[in-house]
Design brief:
By secondary structure, the protein is an alpha+beta fold. It is 10% helix and 23% strand.
Length: 107
Protein backbone atom coordinates (compact mmCIF):
# COMPACT_ATOMS: atom_id res chain seq x y z
CA UNK A 1 0.00 0.00 0.00
CA UNK A 2 1.59 3.23 -1.14
CA UNK A 3 -0.20 5.59 1.22
CA UNK A 4 0.74 9.07 2.37
CA UNK A 5 1.83 8.87 6.01
CA UNK A 6 2.93 12.47 6.48
CA UNK A 7 4.36 15.33 4.46
CA UNK A 8 6.03 18.73 4.70
CA UNK A 9 5.17 21.86 2.70
CA UNK A 10 7.98 21.32 0.17
CA UNK A 11 6.22 18.33 -1.34
CA UNK A 12 3.70 20.73 -2.90
CA UNK A 13 6.27 21.42 -5.62
CA UNK A 14 5.62 17.88 -6.89
CA UNK A 15 2.37 16.67 -5.37
CA UNK A 16 -0.71 18.73 -4.46
CA UNK A 17 -1.43 17.14 -1.08
CA UNK A 18 -3.59 18.30 1.82
CA UNK A 19 -3.93 17.08 5.38
CA UNK A 20 -7.00 15.09 4.29
CA UNK A 21 -4.75 13.07 1.92
CA UNK A 22 -2.97 11.31 4.81
CA UNK A 23 -3.87 7.65 4.50
CA UNK A 24 -4.73 8.05 0.82
CA UNK A 25 -2.90 6.12 -1.91
CA UNK A 26 -0.12 7.97 -3.72
CA UNK A 27 -1.52 6.47 -6.94
CA UNK A 28 -4.68 8.57 -6.51
CA UNK A 29 -2.80 11.88 -6.32
CA UNK A 30 -2.16 14.00 -9.38
CA UNK A 31 1.43 14.98 -10.00
CA UNK A 32 3.02 18.34 -10.71
CA UNK A 33 6.04 16.66 -12.30
CA UNK A 34 6.39 14.65 -15.50
CA UNK A 35 7.79 11.49 -13.90
CA UNK A 36 5.91 8.43 -12.69
CA UNK A 37 6.43 8.83 -8.95
CA UNK A 38 4.46 5.64 -8.19
CA UNK A 39 6.82 3.50 -10.31
CA UNK A 40 9.84 5.21 -8.78
CA UNK A 41 8.58 4.55 -5.25
CA UNK A 42 7.86 0.90 -6.08
CA UNK A 43 11.36 0.48 -7.55
CA UNK A 44 13.03 2.05 -4.49
CA UNK A 45 11.03 -0.22 -2.17
CA UNK A 46 11.90 -3.32 -4.22
CA UNK A 47 15.60 -2.64 -4.72
CA UNK A 48 16.54 -0.37 -1.83
CA UNK A 49 18.43 1.82 -4.30
CA UNK A 50 18.11 5.59 -3.97
CA UNK A 51 16.70 7.53 -6.94
CA UNK A 52 17.22 11.22 -7.65
CA UNK A 53 16.79 13.76 -10.41
CA UNK A 54 16.40 17.46 -11.15
CA UNK A 55 13.67 18.67 -13.48
CA UNK A 56 11.18 21.44 -14.18
CA UNK A 57 7.79 20.93 -12.59
CA UNK A 58 4.63 21.78 -14.54
CA UNK A 59 4.82 25.38 -13.23
CA UNK A 60 8.36 25.78 -14.66
CA UNK A 61 10.10 25.64 -11.27
CA UNK A 62 13.33 23.63 -11.06
CA UNK A 63 12.98 20.95 -8.39
CA UNK A 64 15.18 18.21 -7.03
CA UNK A 65 13.48 14.91 -6.24
CA UNK A 66 15.02 12.15 -4.15
CA UNK A 67 13.40 8.84 -3.23
CA UNK A 68 14.99 6.73 -0.46
CA UNK A 69 13.88 3.57 1.25
CA UNK A 70 12.92 4.06 4.88
CA UNK A 71 12.90 1.32 7.49
CA UNK A 72 11.92 2.06 11.09
CA UNK A 73 14.24 1.18 13.92
CA UNK A 74 12.03 -1.73 14.88
CA UNK A 75 11.97 -2.97 11.25
CA UNK A 76 8.18 -3.18 11.50
CA UNK A 77 7.42 -0.38 9.06
CA UNK A 78 9.13 0.37 5.81
CA UNK A 79 8.33 2.92 3.21
CA UNK A 80 9.78 5.47 0.87
CA UNK A 81 10.92 8.94 1.84
CA UNK A 82 10.20 11.25 -1.07
CA UNK A 83 12.01 14.58 -0.86
CA UNK A 84 11.10 17.41 -3.21
CA UNK A 85 12.99 20.70 -2.96
CA UNK A 86 13.10 23.88 -4.99
CA UNK A 87 16.43 24.39 -6.73
CA UNK A 88 17.19 28.12 -6.84
CA UNK A 89 18.29 29.57 -10.14
CA UNK A 90 21.99 30.26 -10.33
CA UNK A 91 22.94 33.92 -10.61
CA UNK A 92 24.21 34.88 -14.07
CA UNK A 93 27.88 34.11 -14.64
CA UNK A 94 29.95 34.15 -17.83
CA UNK A 95 29.30 30.39 -18.21
CA UNK A 96 25.51 30.49 -17.89
CA UNK A 97 24.65 34.03 -19.03
CA UNK A 98 22.72 34.47 -22.23
CA UNK A 99 22.29 37.43 -24.50
CA UNK A 100 19.21 38.58 -26.35
CA UNK A 101 21.15 39.65 -29.43
CA UNK A 102 22.62 36.24 -30.20
CA UNK A 103 26.13 37.69 -30.18
CA UNK A 104 28.73 35.18 -28.96
CA UNK A 105 30.35 36.01 -25.65
CA UNK A 106 34.13 35.85 -25.77
CA UNK A 107 35.85 34.88 -22.56
Amino acid sequence: DLVVRKFTPGVHLGLPVRDSDIGRSVEELSSRVDVDLTSIIRSVLATGEEWETQLLNKAGVTVGITAQRYVSRSDRKSGCLLTIIRIPEAPPTPTNASTTTGTPIDG
